[in-house]
Amino acid sequence: STTPQNQKNLSGVMVKEVGPTSCSHNLLLPNDVILEIDDIPVANDGKLPFRPGERVACSCYIQTKFIGDIVKLKVLRNGQIWPKPLECRIHPVKRLVP
User: Fold this and answer.
1) Nearest to residue 38, comparing CAs of 76, 1, 70?
2) How far is it, in rounded angstroms, from Cα 76 to Cα 41?
3) Which one of 16, 61, 62, 73 has the largest count of C-beta atoms within 10 Å of its C-beta?
């Protein structure tokens, strides 16, 4: 758990909604805050350090993954850091219409 003092030092991005075809559907909830992706801290602007002197958006980092890869998400939910990382398996895009 985090104390209010520790929460002041946290950074991350808040989840607004989770699409029905997203690999994080049923894992992430609206208002969750993603603090880390694969143990890499997420800044308040939604970017991650990538290579020396470079930063990329979370979505760009996720696009480097292959189908079947697992992405670990450290999440703040309801004011508490989730006890263990959520594991999101990358899957092919599901089509809503055949």
Assistant:
1) 70
2) 13
3) 73
- pLDDT by 10s per residue, the chain, length 98: 455 446 678 999 999 999 888 888 889 999 999 999 999 999 999 999 988 999 999 989 988 999 999 999 999 999 999 989 999 998 887 776 76
Residues 26/31/34/35 CA torsion (nearest 10 deg) = -140
The values of phi and psi at residue 6, to 5°, are -65, -30
> What pTM does this model have?
0.83
Virtual CA dihedral for 77, 7, 48, 23, nearest 10 degrees?
0
